[in-house]
Structure formats: structure tokens, C-alpha cells
């Protein structure tokens, strides 16, 4: 797979539609920098976005992956395989989301415990430890939630994948 060739095709397709990198980035909910990396061949879109790009430009996924246009439409077998891969990716994302939601529920319970200890006025070595643990867990969970909900989550995942490839 020639990433430069794929990037060149993606750039040609974008230009044919008369779109800027920023406009395309908004359509696919990524940053302009990510689109630039696709077009320079430094990165490839993930499988879900590749499928969306193929539909957006009305191309066969194989055309994009080969970096060349062809006249044939995507076979149903290939499309089914890609859809299954996209579904697998979404299932992984759902599992991660459930885990993060569970952490938020646990953090909420700890926050309530912390408030209860404080209201009752319990003091002592162990109660101070429990209060500190509750505070720390709640703060860490909030930071993880903020990062996950922000645009920086995708950048962190991108950076992690780039580091793992090296």
C-alpha cells in the first residue's frame, strides 16, 4: 500500500469537489492537520472514516487503498468485510465508553462518601486517607472525562498510535 499515492488521490478528490482541507475536516469531524497528514501520505484515515470517504466520493474502497480510480463498484463481499471491521471498531469504542461511564459512577459514589464523612465530622488517620483517596479519584476521573469529551482525545489516540508504530 503506497501512502503517498493514496494521499495524492485523496487530495485530487477533495480538489475536484472544490473543498478546502478545513471544510473536509469539518465533514469528517477531524482536524485540518489530520486531513493534511492523509494527503501527504504520513497517515491513513481509520477504517470507519475510509468507508465514509469512499461513500462521500462515490468510490470503491479498493480504489482509495490502491490510490487509483477504477470503473468497478465495490463487491458486496468486500463491503460486508469493511462494515464488519467498522462494527468491530465501534464495539471497542462502546466497551471503552462503558468503562469510562462506570468510572464516573464510582467517582460519584466516592464524592458522596467524601461529603458524608465531612458532614458527619469523622476524623482520624483512616478517615483522612479515605477523604484523600476519594478526592484524588474524583479529580482524575474528571480529567479523563474532560479529555475524552474534548477534541484532544482524538489527538492523544493519534499520538499513541504513532508512538506504537515506531
Strand coverage percent: under 5%
Uncertain runs: none
Total domain units: 2
Span of the ends, CA to CA: 18 Å
Shape summary: elongated
Strand-and-helix sequence, N→C? HHHHHHHH
Summarize the main sheet: none
How many β-strand runs?
0
Please estimate the helix content: over 70%
Number of helices: 8
Quick check: average pLDDT? 82
Radius of gyration computed on alpha carbons: 23 Å
What structural class should be given to the helix and strand makeup?
A: mainly alpha
Description:
With about 170 residues, the protein is an all-alpha fold. The chain has 2 domains: about 5-65, Orthogonal Bundle (434 Repressor (Amino-terminal Domain)), CATH 1.10.260.40; about 90-165. It has 8 helices and no strands. It has helices spanning about 5-15, 20-30, 30-40, 45-55, 60-65, 75-120, 125-150, 150-165. Helix 1 crosses helix 3.
Q: What's the topology here?
A:
Elements: H1 3-16, H2 21-28, H3 32-40, H4 47-56, H5 61-66, H6 76-120, H7 125-149, H8 152-165
Helix pairs in contact: 1-3, 2-3, 6-7
Spell out the key features of this protein:
0% strand; mainly alpha; 166 residues
Give a summary of the structure in a few sentences:
The chain is an all-alpha fold and 166 residues long.
Amino acid at each position: 500500500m503506497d501512502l503517498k499515492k493514496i494521499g495524492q488521490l485523496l487530495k485530487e478528490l477533495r480538489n475536484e469537489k472544490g473543498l478546502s482541507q478545513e471544510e473536509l475536516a469539518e465533514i469528517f469531524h477531524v482536524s485540518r492537520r489530520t486531513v493534511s497528514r492523509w494527503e501527504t501520505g504520513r497517515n491513513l484515515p481509520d477504517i470507519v472514516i475510509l468507508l465514509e470517504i469512499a461513500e462521500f466520493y462515490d468510490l470503491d474502497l479498493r480504489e482509495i487503498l490502491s490510490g487509483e480510480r477504477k470503473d468497478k463498484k465495490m463487491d458486496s463481499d468486500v463491503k460486508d468485510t469493511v462494515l464488519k471491521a467498522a462494527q468491530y471498531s465501534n464495539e471497542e469504542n462502546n466497551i471503552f465508553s462503558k468503562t469510562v461511564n462506570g468510572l464516573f459512577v464510582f467517582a460519584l459514589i466516592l464524592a458522596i462518601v467524601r461529603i458524608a464523612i465531612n458532614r458527619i465530622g469523622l476524623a482520624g488517620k483512616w478517615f483522612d486517607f479515605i477523604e484523600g483517596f476519594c478526592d484524588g479519584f474524583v479529580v482524575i476521573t474528571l480529567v479523563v472525562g474532560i479529555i475524552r469529551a474534548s477534541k484532544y482525545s482524538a489527538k492523544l489516540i493519534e499520538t499513541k498510535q504513532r508512538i506504537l508504530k515506531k
